[in-house]
Amino acid sequence: MKVKVDPTMCMGHARCVSLAPALFESDELGNAVVIGDGSVNSKWEEAVKLAVANCPEYAISMIE
Ligand code: SF4
Q1: What are the domain boundaries of the chain?
Q2: Fold of 2-63
Q3: Which residue CA neighbors atom 3 of ligand 1 most closely?
Q4: Model confidence pLDDT, tens digit, residues 8-44
Q5: Which atom of ligand 1 lies nearest, measured to the CA of 54?
Q6: Following DSSP, what letter does each residue of the chain receive, concatenated?
Q7: How far is CA 3 from CA 11, 26, in A?
Q8: Within 6 Å (CB) of ligand 1, which residues are found?
Q9: Which residue from 16, 18, 40, 62 could staple onto 51, CB 3.0 to 4.6 Å apart?
Q10: pTM for this predicted structure
């Protein structure tokens, strides 16, 4: 599974960074970016699902 953030939709709430800090970080403008290539290991799957569910802009998507 991979995760990605649509930069045109992200508004920088950083909820995703709080919920899954191994996968998301904030850039210099405060918007979320995926760390590395976005690959999600099983340890972080639930956290990523939480991040997707808690993104108010629907900016995060998962690719199986
Ligand atoms: S929660 Fe959504 S809108 Fe907020 S920083 Fe993360 S991806 Fe961007």
Answers
A1: 2-63
A2: Alpha-Beta Plaits (3.30.70)
A3: 10
A4: 999 999 999 999 999 999 999 999 999 999 999 999 9
A5: 1
A6: -EEEE-TTT-----HHHHH-TTTEEE-TTS-EEESTT-B--GGGHHHHHHHHHH-TT--EEEE-
A7: 17, 15
A8: 5, 10-16, 31-32, 55, 57, 59-60
A9: 16
A10: 0.92
